[in-house]
Please model this.
Amino acid sequence: MGNDITSSLQVEKLSGNLIKISGLAGGIGEKPVKIGANYNGEIQWYELKFQSDKQPRFPKLVVNSFQFDLIASFPFPPPNGESIPFPRNPHIASGSTYRGACGAGRPDTAISLSDIQIRVPDPVNNSSHYLLNYSRVDECGTHAGCRWHDACFDVCAKNYGEEEFYEPCHDICNIAVVDRYGEVAGADWMLGYGPYDGYLIYSDPPTWEGPFPGSVHVSKSARYRIDIETGRMTGTGFLTAVLLGAGTDANVYLTLYGTEGDQSREILLDNPGKDDFGTISRDTFYDILRNFEDINRIRLRHDNSGLGPGWFVHQVRVINQDTGQLWHFVIDQWLAEDEGDGLIDKQFQVSYHQEADYKIVIYTGDVDWELGEGTDANIYISLIGENETRTGEIFLDYPYQNNFETGYCDVFDYIRIGEVGELNRIILRNDGFGIAPDWYCEKINIYNRTSGKEWHIPVKSWLTDNNTPKIFFPE
Model:
């Protein structure tokens, strides 16, 4: 609070959006007052303006006997690193920036993007909206190894006061990453290079303008960004679950379908002068389309032209750049006449709306060592939420560790996958690979690091080499 008018300041939450502040010095009505809003550690100051109107447009701040517009209550949407940027400087104990990105600080591999401007609803008036502006936007590659490493460094700074990467706790973090992923990956990540399992965007704290008349969908059209990943499946490793020959030379088309029965025109996905949809690639396309209130499915097809038309699609992500809405479609299927079901024209339901970091802890049984409860097979897991939001199959593997040994516990951390909400069930699959593929799983614990929720699944079951998925439910 500015202007030295505070004494013993007390804040009381009243009904609705009302807040009562008491303990202020006199003369408040004549002095300009500012209040600080904490946005992910970045303090922004806003003026409180005297409001005499009986029906003000903003939430109210009650200060002694005066009422003021509470500008600081503006509802900034939480950052997700996809459509809403993470803060470049989160103001944490280590003083580090670009948390979760591979590389130190702003990596040399970061790509500068255009400023982002999105419309958000007016919290007290459904017929108006605000504009949020995010400047100095960067896109950086990320991987579970980089996210875990940053989190480990942050613990060293917060709990042990360390500031340098060569101090004891930091050194343990470095060794753990090399143990899981190898020296080459560790060195590449330190310089900001891949392999990546995704991309995150960062920016300065947002500024806002408004209110403006009309809802967030006031315009009939909107700017869309469409990201398509080819040739791999979701996994915790980086040289695994890659499908060679998965790219396509065919012409690819996409149609979006809304929940109100509306649909977009069919879009030819093509970046002139670029070879799109190569094996292990991410291609981005921009277009202006119908401003959907919500999207529930897509149609994806190709015309089977070119020398190598068969195409394995990992996922499609659609972002409404005017509203910040996003939709994920986990595909993990072939669109090919000679692979899978032989179809090259398919429709897919939305899988989830944003991503989250999960921790999955798997316990392999040790009931009888002679039975050999461990496995050499590849293990896959899928998470399904109560509203049928789903992650698709996740390949569980640390490439430089021997996972799923008898009596051992394997921890797969900072897996960035779909936010499924309340977990309803999981699906486990053993692909039967290796000399001793049969596996006895004792239990699985799943933690959503973003929401703080956790679930415990008592498996107590053999998964044999017949490649048949099994369903298990949380306690």
Notes: The first helix runs from residue 144 to 160.
